[in-house]
Amino acid sequence: MKIKKLVVIHTSPATVESLTSLIKQEIGKVEVVNILDDSILKDLIQKNHVEFVEERWLQYATIAASMGADAVLSACSSVGEIAEKANAKLDIPVYRIDEAMAEKAVQMGNTISVFATLSSTLDPTVNLIKRKAESLGKDCTLHTVLVPDAYEELMRGNRSLHNKKIQETVLKYAADSDVLVLAQASMALAVDELKGIDMDKVLTSPRLGVAKLKKEFFHIS
Fold this sequence. Notes:
By secondary structure, the chain is α/β, with parallel strands linked by helices. It is 48% helix and 17% strand. The chain has helices at 16-27, 40-46, 50-66, 80-89, 99-108, 119-135, 150-155, 159-174, 205-216, and strands at residues 5-10, 31-36, 71-74, 94-96, 111-116, 141-146, 179-182, 202-204.
């Protein structure tokens, strides 16, 4: 049987190694090809050349298809809506890493706090959760929370301080939330340090996203 090729498009180096390892661990025999453009997030945050971000990302997805990819996975929630456009245009499926997380969030509760370390992630994630809630006929209350300076610390290589800032911020909202959504794949790095929080209501995108891909595309239960 031919080994399937999965192209993963990243916007941060923080997700490349961890997500590749998770895919190999959960899916097994799959060829993983990573494409990284770490200028996309900077452009989105600073609102520079935003119109070209979509064009650029769609080109990467098109290149992935021309490379013989069987599927594409978007590792970044900030460009999730662009990934949906690519899915509609290409002949191969394009998955959002955060779709399964959004689906589970609305199934779990009505008061959902969404945390991000980048402002560019909040709107795409919230929009996705709202759409999932509407599809289930649910009226959810969403709180959006930006964790200041955490991503900058991660890019400086200070993972422990990145994790600490997330932990401190999430803890403030934990008691009043049914679900705690860590919107970015890179935030999953902080999960093991979320002390004093009911972890059953903490959702991150990598494991859920890969599990959805495993079931729906690779047909592995």
